[in-house]
Model the fold of this input.
Amino acid sequence: MIATADQERHKDAVIIGGGIAGLQSALDLADQGYKVAVVERQASIGGRMISLSKVYPTLDCASCITTPKMSAAAHHDNIELLTYTEVNSIRPGPEGHTVVLTRKPTYVNADKCIGCRLCEYACDTEYPDGFEQGLGSVRAISVAFTNAIPQKAVLDADYCLACGLCLRACPTDAIEFDQQPRRETIHADVVIVASGFQLNALTVKPQYSAARNQNVISPLTLERLLAPHGPYGRVLRPSDGKIPESIAFVQCAGSRDQSIGVPYCSRVCCMYAIKQAMLLSGSLPTADITIYYMDIRAFGKGYEQFYQNAKAMGINFVRGKVSKIDPVDKDDLLVHVEYTEEPQDCVRKQRHDMVVLAQGMIPQWNPTTLSPVQIAGDGFVATPDPVSPCATNVPGIFVAGAAAGPKDIVDSIAEAGAAAMEAGRYLSKRASLDHAGRAVALELIA
Amino acid sequence: MDNVNRNVAQDAAVPTTPRVGVYICRCGGNISDVVDTEHVAEICRLIPGVAVSKVHTFMCSDPGQQTISDDIKQEKLDRVVVASCSPFLHELTFRGAVVRSKMNPYLYEQVNIREQCSWAHKHDPRGATAKAIQLISAAVGKVSRATPLEKIRLPNHRRALVVGGGPAGMKVAADLAACGISVVLVEQSDRLGGKLHTLNRLFPTGQAATELAAKMESQVLADPKIEILLNSKVTKVSGFIGNFEVGIHGSFGPAGKTTDIHTTVGVIVMATGFKPYVPADGEFNYKKHPTVLTTVDFNSLLATQNAEGRILQYEGRSIRSIAFIHCVGSRQVDGVHTPGPDGRINTYCSRACCTTVLNQALQVRQRFPDTRVYDLHQDIRAYGRGHEDYYTNASRAGVVFFRYHGDEPPSVTNANGPTSPLRIDVKDYLSWGEQLELEVDMVVLAVGMTAGSCETLVDQLKLPRGEDRFLQEIHPKLRPVEISVNGVLLAGTAQAPMNIQETLAAAGAAAVKARVMFSTEEVELNPYVAEVDTRLCEGTGACITQCEYDGALVMVETQKDGRTVRKAHVNPGQCVGCGACVAVCPTQAINVNGWRIDQYDAMVDGLVRDLTPAAV
Done:
């Protein structure tokens, strides 16, 4: 159900983050009969997963397997979705946690909007589309993306010229230029932090020249290029629209690197690089595809076989470390590689049309200033109890998915289930305590 | 088409003049960019039985669903067809929409014109459009002959069977019991804890495995909701979700007397764990030389090694150097590795061994600084949180790394007898393919995980195993703890190799699914099961011979005109609606509800229907 506005209310659980981990936790709690609110910063739920092309090792279309989860959450009687909403604070107390939220103005009345997109078609102000990693453009008022949930328009005040075209186009008079941020408070017995990850900057290693050349791209950009409903509908390199003939993946370009403060492994990059390489060789059969890596960490179920298939497909795996990438002849790239396996002539320069940097995963959200939840040295939420891998330092606050360290979808889903279980246990215990307390009170009255 | 198999009873529920609503989704362009949806809607109005045919940009959106609801009321529709994406995505959405309009959800049919038309025939818009019309026409035929169905409701026994008393089993039992669900925990050995007893210091916490085992065991023992049966095995299992009948045999009776018990449970959790790979005799000189150990052996060595000193001691020998060899029994290569007794090789990665080796290597360097350590790996897969630190620290502590290729595994020999050092030959790719010889006092083989055995349950419940022989989840990405047998869940390494933390997370995920299954008084099953028309059934038993699901089809004897007659009878709980029985019945007395043969006939009629305006 889509949220309606009221100021202060109670929920059994508040879930911070409407990505795959948050949605799975929400569904697992709601299916147990608990009332859940999912708080999502963006205009749509779906998180990172909804923007991916296909997922390893099954090569399922990501939209097609994310949408049902999104839809299930949206239509669940026990789930309330609070999109376009920021968390101000989480304060634990004897009566549960007080979660204070800011509902950001969408300038569109969600009850009236029917998602017809006529406003979007009418609007003539465009800006780079964040969902498409800036490759396409989006109108100043728009529905977040094709399969967004909710299918409601959001107006971006930073770009809107207040020209009134949308106002005239809207058949239901849903546009409200005078909307203000609204504060809402939810009292919840449990909170699950599922705030996910972000990638560190493409420019975190300046020697890789991402700031100087558009063809040094993020893996998330490549996901959009590979997606069937992506910005170009096919794979073209950003600078000049050329069909790339030689593509390189530079692994550990933002992880396992003490010089940039990310000494840990980001855990997903090996597998998505292999997947992207496979998809590329499907859409560009004649292209040369090279993966420069330190170790191939294909550790999950079916992953090693996936890696071996990629090798058999002719994808070139080179064990080596890329020292720098230089733009050459305007749009091409010269990748300097130290070969650490063979051949023995060590350092070579390889020319590629496009380079994908495996950026590191870092936390999306730091809860420490807004709540008593502690983070570990790696910046992700700390999980101090070995028996309860989803428990944080605060009783009744749990963590799931990449908020507790880099994790792929399958591990996030398993952990989200575990977090819902921990939360369910906590809620059962509270309920039985409440019950006992009430029994005593009744006895006293008698 | 003449339907010789027409089922009279079911015909009664099929209206002679159905009023079907057809809704065609543009899917925001996903469909309408290729398929001419407006044209499709126009043509669909010509299909017999179609009362309404409309197009919407997003049928699944709330306004789209509202259109359907309004038409059901205003246009008095009694059947609905939505032509959009795969039913996998939105069948439940649209069934919900028709239920909200007080219509039976099984009078709804979904046609996939996205994956099957617009996406598959992107470059042939005319063909895609024509195909969409044909598929819709078939669905209209099918739904016109659909009968209202009800979900099958059966009692739900609020009790779980957890098979395996390792960390996964204990975690599931503790989680469920804490929510008030009674659990019977079956463990074949004489104590709880499973493989935790073979581990030493757990990564990445450094906690002693025995401490974790004791902590978890005390939780399980303290909960009166958990019945623990040690030294016991499941000997018989049958039934279905909510209603599994389980026989357990074991020596848990008074004074260890062997006893058989029988119990009914609603859910079965497979926490049957893994078996460490056991190298063949002579594989890396295992069993041929006293100081070739596995990581399992080495764990107990580290746990029991109390000797002070700068050099590790083992059976009276000073171990001045150790080589760890990764991927023993994992990442095996066809044609290079010898298949095991079952004729297979293990091509998969066992996930936990890399960090296990780093953990052990680091402990050796820290506790016995004069014992040198070599590490022979393919890739170092220190992927988990905190794992990379083990790699860095092992490296800093002086562990020397070598990298070999999977198709050129190192060889271990002891040319000069059991008292001599071992010799390792390896082609090392960190020195650009140099052929190296190492002399070491001990070799530790990092053995992988192989699938645990639980054959009674696997055979009797028909649980699928994957290529790697671990139990096969429904969907490796989205549904990792569920298996195709409804009511059976997977916890921990029964499903795939994983480390302790991952095991506990997977167990928690299984527990939550179990709790959800127990959240209703009754279990609801889809009504797509076989149904016998007793007037046509002649009791030949052909269907029973064909049926693969124990108890799904049985022969019952009834009295008819003073004679005893045999008729097939379906137990809806066990039937999966596969239709094998339908194909063999000589009198066509058996059908699968929702997929009856006359519906197939109508679909075929629909597919070949000429919808050119002139023909109609």
Observations:
- The CA atoms of residues 46 and 614 of chain B lie 11 Å apart.
- The radius of gyration of chain B is 31 Å.
- Chain B is about 30% helix and 25% strand.
